[in-house]
Design brief:
heterotrimer, A mainly alpha, B mainly alpha, C mainly alpha, B: 8 helices, C: 57% helix, elongated
Chain lengths: 508, 171, 94
C-alpha cells in the first residue's frame, strides 16, 4: 500500500537534490534523473504485479474514509500507462545526456523534467477530480517551461501559442468541474459516478436527456481536446511540436499528451460519466476528423518537423476514433494504437534531434536531407514510417487491422469506408516520407555532405531500442503481453461506472 | 445582494473596457481595479481568506505586467485577426449563453447548495486540534495534497522565470 | 482573444479566470450563512460551503503561476522581435 506515495516522494527528493548539489556537475543531475526513472519503472512493475487480474489499490490520505478523503487509486489502466510513461522517460533521459551537451543550465532542465513526471504521476494516480485538475496544471506548467527552454525566437513563439491554448483549456476544465460539483456535490471520482447513478434513478431520466451532464461533457471534451490536439484544436499542439527541441517534443507527444489529454478524458468519460451512444458518436467524429486533417496537413508540407506534427495529430485522432467504437476489441485496438502512436512519435522526435545535433544549428527545411547521412536515423525513420502505415511486422499492423475490423461492425459501414480512404492517404504520405528522407537520389543532393560531428552513443542507444521494440515486440504482444497488460487495462474501461464498485472492493 | 449584482456588472463593463482601450498601461491598471473588485466580491460572498489571497496575487501580477508594458509604450492598432477567430468567439458566446439558460435552472438554487461532503467533514471537526479559522484548517488537514500540488506548480513557475530571465543559452 | 497584442491576450486569460472563480464561489454560497470561523455565534452547520472556496484558492495560486510564466515569455518575445504584435512573429529562419 505504501508504494503509491513513493511515486511522488522519490522525484521530489531528487528535485531537491539536483537543485542543491548539481549546479556545476551536470552529469550528476543526469545520473540522478536516470536513477529516479529506473526506480520508478521498477516500482510500477511491482504495482502491476499487485493489480494483476483486476484488483484495485487505493490509498487514503490523511486517515479519512471514503467519500471525504483524497484517494490515490491504482488500477490496471493507470498502471499500464505508468509503465509506458516510465519506459519513455528512461529512454528520453538517456537520449538527453547526449543531446544537451552544448546547453548551459542543465540542472533546470532536469528539474523541469522531473516535475513534469510528478505531474503526470498525479494525473494517473488521482482518485479525485480536484487532484486531477491540480496535477494537470503542474504537468502543464512544466511542459510550457520545457518548450521554451532553448530561448530561441522560434521556441518562444511556439511556447506562447501553445500556452495560451493550454490556459484556455484549463479554464474550461475548471468550469466543468465547478458545474459538476454544484450539480452533484461530490469530488471523489467514484463518488461522482455513484451520485450520478442515484440521481438518474430517482429522477428516472436517461443520460441523453440530462442536459447538465451533456453540457459538462461538452466542456470537458473542448477542454481536453484543446490539450490533446484533436481536430478543431490541433493548432496549439502542432505549434508546440515544431517549437520544442527533440527530447522535449518526445516527452510532450509520448508522455504528456497521452496522459493529460487522452487518459484523463477517457477516465472521466468511461468510468465516471458513463458511456452513451451520442457521446461515442462525438468521439468517432472528432477522431476521424483529426485523422484526416492531420494527414492532409502532412501531405501539404515539406518541412520534416511539420510532416511529423501532422502525422502525430492524425495518429492520435485514430486512437480517439477507436475509443469511440466501444466494443471490447475496439478498446483493445485503441490501446494498441496508443502504444503505436507513442513509439512512432518518440522515434520521429529523436530523429529530428539527431539531425539538429549534427548540423548544430536551427532547423531549416532542406537540411533534413542529412538524415540520409546518419545510419541510425535512417533506420529509425524507416521503421517509424512503416509503422505509420501498418505494414506487417512493424508496430502499426495489429492496431490498424483491429480498428478496421471493428469499424465495420459499427454504424452502417460509413466509418469503414472513410477509414479505408484515409488509410490509403496515410500510406501515400509515408511512402513520400521514405522517398524524401531515406532513399538517396541518383544525383547527390546539395546537402549530402559527409558528417563531421559524430552522434554520441547515448543518442543512438534509445533509438535502437525503440526500433527493436517496434519491430520485434509485436510478436511478444500477440503471445504474451496482451493477456498480461492490455486486457486488464481494457476491462477497467469496459466496466465503466462499475469503477465505483471496484473502488469499494479495493478499500475493504 | 444588490451590492453583489452591482459589483458584477461593474466588473463586466471593466473587462470590456480593458480589452478595447488602445493604451496598454491604462488597460493594465483597469485589470488591477478589476482584481480589487473581485476581492470585494469575495468579501461579500463571505470568503475573507480568498479576498486576502486575491489581493496579494493581484499585486504580484500587476508588478509583472507593468514591468512588461513599460518596456514599450506603443499603441495597439485596432485591426483584428483572421476570421476563424471571430467564428470561435461568437460560437463560444452562444455556447455559454445557452449553457446559462439551460443549466442554471437545474442546478441547486442560489443560496442553498447541496452540502454533502462539507457536512460530513464539518460535523466531526475538533475545535481544539485545528485552530479557529476553518478554511485554513480544511486546507491543511483535509485538502493538503492538493495544496502540495499547488506549491509544486508555483515552484516550477519560479524555476521557469529564473530560466528565462538569466543566463545565456548555449556555450 | 481576437486581439493582436500579446499583453491583451494575457489579460483576456486573466479575465476568464476571474469569471470562473466568481462563478464557483457563488455556487457555494448560502444565504444568511455564517463565516467560516469558530466563534460563539457561528453555527457549524449553517456555514457557507467551504469546498468551492478551497478549490478557488488553489485556482488563484495556479493562475498566478501560469500568468507569471506567460508574462515572462512575453517579455522574452519582445526582446527578440521588438514588438508585441503576434501577427508579426512568424518563424525566423536563422
Amino acid at each position: 500500500m505504501m508504494i503509491i506515495p513513493l511515486f511522488f516522494i522519490i522525484p521530489l527528493l531528487s528535485i531537491f537534490f539536483i537543485a542543491a548539489f548539481t549546479r556545476e556537475k551536470s552529469w550528476l543531475a543526469n545520473l540522478a534523473a536516470v536513477l529516479v526513472a529506473a526506480v520508478l519503472l521498477i516500482l510500477s512493475l511491482m504495482l502491476a504485479l499487485f493489480t494483476g487480474g483486476g484488483k484495485v489499490l487505493c490509498y487514503n490520505m490523511g486517515g479519512f474514509s471514503f467519500p471525504v478523503s483524497i484517494m490515490l487509486v491504482a488500477d490496471s489502466l493507470a498502471v499500464f500507462m505508468l509503465l509506458i510513461v516510465y519506459c519513455i522517460s528512461l529512454l528520453t533521459l538517456i537520449y538527453s545526456k547526449g543531446y544537451m551537451q552544448s546547453y548551459l543550465d542543465k540542472w533546470k532542465y532536469y528539474i523541469l523534467f522531473l516535475s513534469m513526471l510528478v505531474g503526470v504521476n498525479g494525473v494517473l494516480l488521482s482518485g479525485d477530480i480536484v487532484t486531477l485538475y491540480i496535477f494537470l496544471e503542474v504537468s502543464g506548467v512544466s511542459s510550457y517551461a520545457l518548450v521554451c527552454f532553448t530561448k530561441k525566437a522560434n521556441a518562444f513563439v511556439g511556447a506562447f501559442r501553445y500556452m495560451i491554448k493550454g490556459v484556455l483549456a484549463s479554464s474550461i476544465i475548471l468550469f466543468g468541474i465547478a458545474l459538476c460539483y454544484s450539480y452533484l456535490s461530490a469530488l471523489n471520482l467514484a463518488d461522482i459516478a455513484q451520485q450520478l447513478i442515484i440521481r438518474h434513478e430517482t429522477a428516472q431520466i436517461q443520460m441523453r436527456e440530462d442536459i447538465v451532464i451533456l453540457f459538462i461533457l461538452g466542456f470537458f471534451s473542448v477542454g481536453f481536446g484543446l490539450k490533446t490536439g484533436i481536430f478543431p484544436f490541433h493548432r496549439g499542439v502542432i505549434e508546440a511540436y515544431t517549437a520544442a527541441e527533440a527530447p522535449v517534443a518526445a516527452m510532450l507527444s509520448g508522455v504528456v499528451i497521452p496522459v493529460i489529454g487522452l487518459y484523463a478524458f477517457i477516465r472521466l468519460f468511461f468510468c465516471v460519466i458513463g458511456v452513451f451512444p451520442a457521446g461515442m458518436t462525438l468521439l468517432l467524429a472528432m477522431g476521424i476528423l483529426s485523422f484526416s486533417a492531420g494527414i492532409i496537413k502532412a501531405l501539404r508540407e515539406h518541412d520534416f518537423r511539420k510532416i511529423i506534427a501532422g502525422h502525430l495529430v492524425s495518429e492520435l485522432g485514430l486512437v480517439v476514433f477507436a475509443f469511440g467504437l466501444g466494443t471490447q476489441n475496439g478498446l483493445l485496438g485503441a490501446i494498441t494504437q496508443m502504444v503505436n502512436y507513442i513509439i512512432i512519435s518518440t522515434l520521429f522526435c529523436y530523429t529530428s534531434g539527431m539531425v539538429s545535433y549534427a548540423i548544430n544549428s536551427n532547423h531549416t527545411g532542406r537540411a533534413y536531407a542529412q538524415i540520409k547521412n546518419i545510419m541510425v536515423a535512417r533506420v529509425a525513420v524507416f521503421t517509424a514510417a512503416l509503422a505509420l502505415c501498418g505494414v506487417f511486422p512493424f508496430s502499426g499492423f495489429w492496431s490498424k487491422f483491429i480498428i478496421m475490423i471493428e469499424a465495420k461492425k459499427v454504424g452502417n459501414g460509413q466509418w469503414f469506408f472513410l477509414l479505408a480512404l484515409f488509410y490509403l492517404l496515410a500510406f501515400i504520405s509515408s511512402i513520400r516520407i521514405l522517398k524524401k528522407f531515406i532513399f538517396t537520389g541518383k544525383k547527390g543532393d546539395a546537402f549530402y555532405k559527409p558528417l563531421k560531428i559524430k552522434i554520441p552513443f547515448s543518442m543512438n542507444f534509445p533509438v535502437g531500442i525503440l526500433a527493436c521494440i517496434s519491430i520485434g515486440a509485436y510478436i511478444i504482444w500477440f503471445f504474451y503481453a496482451k493477456e498480461m497488460f492490455f486486457i486488464p487495462a481494457i476491462n477497467v474501461l469496459n466496466e465503466g461506472t462499475l469503477y465505483a464498485q471496484n473502488i469499494f472492493l479495493g478499500i475493504k | 445582494m444588490t451590492e453583489l449584482v452591482v459589483l458584477l456588472i461593474v466588473m463586466i463593463i471593466g473587462a470590456v473596457v480593458a480589452l478595447e482601450i488602445k493604451d496598454l498601461l491604462s488597460s493594465v491598471v483597469i485589470i488591477g481595479a478589476l482584481g480589487l473588485c473581485l476581492s470585494v466580491g469575495f468579501v461579500l460572498l463571505k470568503a475573507p481568506d480568498l479576498a486576502m489571497v486575491q489581493l496579494v496575487v493581484e499585486l504580484i501580477l500587476m508588478v509583472i505586467l507593468i514591468r512588461a508594458t513599460v518596456i514599450e509604450d506603443k499603441h495597439d492598432n485596432n485591426k483584428k485577426r483572421e476570421n476563424a477567430y471571430f467564428f470561435v468567439v461568437i460560437s463560444s458566446l452562444v455556447v455559454f449563453l445557452s449553457a446559462a439558460f439551460f443549466i442554471i435552472r437545474k442546478l441547486p438554487i442560489f443560496g442553498k447548495p447541496i452540502f454533502r461532503i462539507s457536512y460530513a467533514y464539518l460535523k466531526d471537526l475538533n475545535i481544539n486540534a485545528l485552530g479557529s479559522n476553518i478554511l485554513a484548517s480544511l486546507m491543511l488537514d483535509w485538502r493538503v495534497f492538493d495544496v502540495f500540488g499547488c506549491m509544486i506548480a508555483l515552484f516550477v513557475a519560479v524555476i521557469c522565470v529564473l530560466l528565462l530571465v538569466k543566463g545565456k543559452r548555449k556555450i | 482573444m481576437m486581439k493582436k497584442n500579446i499583453i491583451k491576450l494575457i489579460m483576456s486569460t486573466i479575465i476568464i479566470n476571474y469569471s470562473i472563480q466568481v462563478f464557483f464561489v457563488l455556487s457555494g454560497y448560502k444565504l444568511q450563512g455564517d463565516l467560516l470561523v469558530f466563534s460563539a455565534d457561528n453555527n457549524i452547520l449553517n456555514m457557507v460551503d467551504p469546498i468551492p472556496q478551497i478549490i478557488v484558492l488553489m485556482a488563484i495560486l495556479i493562475g498566478l503561476a501560469v500568468n507569471a510564466v506567460l508574462v515572462t515569455i512575453a517579455i522574452g518575445l519582445y526582446q527578440k522581435f521588438e514588438t508585441f504584435d503576434i501577427t508579426k512573429m512568424f518563424e525566423v529562419k536563422e
